[in-house]
Amino acid sequence: MSSQKYQVLNLYKTLLYMGREYPLGYPYFRDRCHKAFARNRTETDVQTIDQMIKRGEFVVKEIEALYRLKKYRTLRKRYYKHELEPDTDSTA
């Protein structure tokens, strides 16, 4: 049981760390994360807790993908701006 407790605490800390750059703001993310963990604090079934931990790890991966996509789009706009704009010099 202490192993699961460690996993849950680690997941919570990881989510809070990942939420620092969330598009809707850190307070929004922190409140939603806290409510989700508080809602399930009385859960005692080991299998259910394992499922919740796996879902939380999936959310971490989705947030990482969101940040990578944001970074990719920013870099693409910065360095390939001329390719993204429509061609205005051609005559039809």
Automatic annotation (TrEMBL):
One of its GO terms (cellular component) is mitochondrion. It holds the Pfam family Complex1_LYR_2. This is LYR motif-containing protein 5. It comes from the Eukaryota. Belongs to the complex I LYR family. It comes from Medioppia subpectinata. GO terms for biological process: negative regulation of oxidative phosphorylation; respiratory electron transport chain. InterPro entries: Complex1_LYR_ETFRF1_LYRM5, ETFRF1.
